[in-house]
Each structure stands twice: as structure tokens, then as C-alpha cells.
Amino acid sequence: MSKINLRSTSDGWRGKIADSFTFDFVERVAMAIGSYTLKHGGTETFVGYDTRFLGFEFAKQAGQALSQFGLNVSISSRPIPTPMVSFRTNQKEMVCGITITASHNPYYYNGVKVRMGYGGAPGEEFVVEIQNLMDSPKNNILQERLDFQNDDPIADYCQKLWTIIDWQSFNRRPLKVAVDTMHGTTSGVLRNVLSGTKAKVIEIHSDIDPYFGGIAPEPMESNTQELQMLIAGGQCDLGIAHDGDGDRIMAVIPRVGYLSPHDVAVILLWYLAKARKQNGIVIGSVTMSKRLSFVANYLGLAYKEVPIGFKNACEIMRNEKVLIAGEENGGIGFGFYLPERDATLAAALLSEAEINYSGGINAILAEVEKVAGESGFSRLNLKLTTSPKIVMEKLKEEPPERIAGQKVSRISETDGLKFFFVSGDWVNIRAAGTEELLRVYVESSNKQKALEIVKAAEEIIRKIERR
Fold first, then answer.
1. Domain end (from 307, 337, 372)
2. Could you tell me the pTM of the whole model?
3. Are residues 345 and 207 in the same domain?
4. Of 104, 128, 152, the domain-final residue
5. CA-based nearest residue to 381, from 452, 329, 438, 426
6. Residues 119 and 247 in one domain
7. What is the Cα–Cα distance from 2 to 243, expressed in whole angstroms?
8. Are residues 316 and 330 in the same domain?
9. 3-state secondary structure string across the chain
10. Residue 283 sits in the same domain as residue 251
11. CATH of the domain at 435
């Protein structure tokens, strides 16, 4: 029996539908998780799914396998965001729960994400134990059991978020928010959270489309042009976009336009610390904007940098007092909630900041720039003709002394290779964890300079590729 590598993502497994991701695989991973749950004293579990092809059918397959262990299995009655699975798993004090999703990946991918009873991604010990169970011979033949309970956690989830946000502030003045759900799982969720207030939420791309409109459901600048035009037209006060399973966010505001996840994280940090007077450790991934650490230092808050993968932030959030944790890809979590990314909670707090803070988000950005300066960010996904890992090995053996005319001052190997320049600019190059890609991340003083550095980095990578 061939081994299946659960480590292919930071919190589960992912593959192409009908290729590596099959009903047989879903059964095998669910059987392993069922065995783990029973061993650790669990009596029930929860299965969610997103809007991809056969999502509900895969969820039923997982539920059937889990039920073989005598567990009470609940399956979501609709596609739901991963953070809602985290919420339900934690609320019910389960050992763990799962969801069938491939997050931001293209439509032809699917996967299994695991969420533990503490409401976050699994740790290394869980990964090792499940891997061993999956690699063992399969002797079980599933018995037909389809007596699952249907469960929709949205009402309980929204009630929980109401206890976190300052919902009374949403009655001070009207606010119109546009949400691009990217044909994913967050349709109607923010509207439910803000229902009963003066805030009005409209949605685009809220219909279920397993093809995601022909683009990957990732809230990048290039994928959210319609939302940006809607906000530029003055029809709404704030625009939000989420990824396919609702744990990533970007934003758009009038006069400024697109706000990258870097901007959103630093805006929320400023608002939470300055307006809500909250404190705690600030966590940023290795590809996060330097402005997040600058602002944390200015506010007198400790800053910790972690490798890419929110499980790294989750571990700190479980053991220390954390205010906010941010990733370059748009994953943002809050220490006063669960050790988990939650794009709906981030959207609600961003909406609150627009209403509550004098001058709104524009004023926060202006104050941040006084403290941390301006920033421009660019990211490039490179498909190569050879293995990304081989290219990374060659790059490590012969690192460039200059990139885009700037001399490299030092190199970090925290996650991939991160090249620093005297100017404060940086380039991070790493192999993607879920796709056969090389990712290039750049931060400079403005977007144009960042684009120039990205282009130069690509030229270096292509030369290595042709050797």
C-alpha cells in the first residue's frame, strides 16, 4: 500500500480530484481520525465541506467511516467556512472535527482539513499518529450507516461573534459593506453577524459554483477586480473578499482601493490596540510586512515571527497571550477568540473600525504610515519545468549577491530563502506547500519597486531552471 503524506499541508491533506483525492482516500483518512478520536475518549465528531465538486458526497463518505467507531457524527447541512468547523468542534468539546475543502486552490483540487478541540490546527503529534494509522494495512469493510445528524452551526457562531464585536457601534450610522464570497462558503455569514444593525451587507459571486467563476478562490488583487470597481464607484463604504473556505481576507476602501492582507492586519492591530485598548503578542509569518513589526514595537507589544503555516501561530496562541496573528496570504487570527484564522471575524472588526475610529480606516492608514512608512508588496507564483525543490537547492548553494541592483546584506532560512537589503527591502523565495510552484514574495517602499524586484528575482530563478 502506498503511503499518503498528511504533511502536504499545514493542517491536513490535499490533492487533485479523482487523481490523488478519491473516495477511497477520504475513507482512509476518516478511519484513521475515527480511531484516534475513540482512543482519546471522543464520542462525537463533526464534518463540514465547501462548495467544490462532490463536497457533500465526500463528507458523507467521511461520516460513514467515522460512524464505524460508534461515534455520533454530525454533518453540516450546508457548505460552511472552516472557521465555523473550528467553532463547532471547540464548542462541543470534541476531540477533533474535519472539513472537506481545498481552501484557495483551483476547482480541481479538494482536501481534508482537521480541527482540534481547542479550535485550531493539529500539532505534530497528531500528524504523526494519523500518518501511522493511514499507512497501516486497511482491513475494515465499511458497514452501511447513514443515520447522520444534520447540523448548521451558523446561528451559534454568529451569537458568539456578537459577544466579541461592539455591535452597538453599528447602530451609530449606516454602513454599506460589499462582500465577494468568491462562490465559496461565506455567503450570508457576515450579513447574519451584522443583522439587526444599521449595517447593510451586499454580496457578489455568492452563488454556488464549483468552478469558482473560472479562477482560484483566492482573494488576491488580480482576482477581485469586480469588487474593486464596485467600491471605486462609490456604492459601498467597504469591500471584503474571502477565499473558498473563509479563512483568508483582503479589503477595498474608497479613494485608496485595494488593501492587501498586510494592510488589513496592521489596520486591525492599530484599531485593537489604540481604540479597544487591547494588548498581547503580535505574530507575523516570515513573509509578512515589516510594518506589522514596526507598529507592534511602536505600541510596546512583543512581536514574534514564525514560518508560513498558521499551525505555527496556533501553537503560540494556545500557550501565550496573543493579540493578533497575521499571514501574508490573508489569514488573520485573534488571541481573544480561538487559535484559528477567521476571515468573518476579521471582516466584522474591520467594519467596526470603519465606524468606530475617527476618520475610519483611511485615518488609521495615515497614522500607520507616520509610524512605519509606506509599503508596497508583490507576490509571484512560478510554474517551473523542473522540481521547485531542486531549484531551491541550487539557489541555496549559489545565492545571488545582488537582486535588482541591490546588494544582499543577509539571508534567512526560516522558511525558504529570505534575502534582505540595506534599504529594508526583502525577497522571500520558497516552494509552495500545496502546489508544484515556487512562490516569490517582495516588500519594498512602494508597489512599483516591489514589481521590479519580483521581475529580477524571476530572471534569477529562470536562469537556474535552464541549467
1. 372
2. 0.93
3. yes
4. 152
5. 438
6. no
7. 32
8. yes
9. CCCCCHHHCCCEEEEEECCCECHHHHHHHHHHHHHHHHHCCCCEEEEEECCCCCHHHHHHHHHHHHHCCCCEEEEECCCCCHHHHHHHHHHCCCCEEEEECCCCCCCCEEEEEEEECCCCCCCHHHHHHHHHHHHCCCCCCCCCCCCCEEECCHHHHHHHHHCCCCHHHHHCCCEEEEEECCCCCCCCHHHHHCCCCCEEEEEECCCCCCCHHHCCCCCCHHHCHHHHHHHHCCCCCEEEEECCCCCCEEEEECCCEEECHHHHHHHHHHHHHHCCCCCCEEEEECCCCHHHHHHHHHCCCCEEEECCCHHHHHHHHHHCCEEEEECCCCCEEECCCCCCECHHHHHHHHHHHHHHCCCHHHHHHHHHHHHHCCCEEEEEEECCCCCHHHHHHHHHHCCCCEECCEEEEEEECCCCEEEEECCCCEEEEEECCCCCCEEEEEEECCHHHHHHHHHHHHHHHHHHHHC
10. yes
11. 3.30.310.50
Task: For residue 73, tell me if it sits in a domain.
Answer: yes
Q: Domains in the chain: how many in total?
A: 3
Per-residue pLDDT of the chain (467 residues; tens, 9 = 90+): 344 443 456 688 899 999 999 999 999 999 999 999 999 999 999 999 999 999 999 999 999 999 999 999 999 999 999 999 999 999 999 999 999 999 999 999 999 999 999 999 998 889 889 988 888 776 566 666 667 899 999 999 999 999 999 989 999 999 999 999 999 999 999 999 999 999 999 999 999 999 999 999 999 999 999 999 999 999 899 999 999 999 999 999 999 999 999 999 999 999 999 999 999 999 999 999 999 999 999 999 999 999 998 999 999 999 999 999 999 999 999 999 999 999 999 999 999 999 999 999 999 999 999 999 989 999 999 999 999 999 999 999 999 999 999 999 999 999 999 999 999 999 999 998 777 889 999 999 998 999 999 999 999 999 999 88
User: 171 and 317 share a domain?
Assistant: yes
Q: 385 with 358, same domain?
A: no
Domain enclosing residue 403, as ranges: 376-466
294-299 LR contacts (CB < 8 Å, sep 24+): 294/371, 294/372, 294/373, 295/266, 295/269, 295/270, 295/368, 295/371, 295/372, 296/269, 298/371, 298/372, 299/269, 299/270, 299/273, 299/274
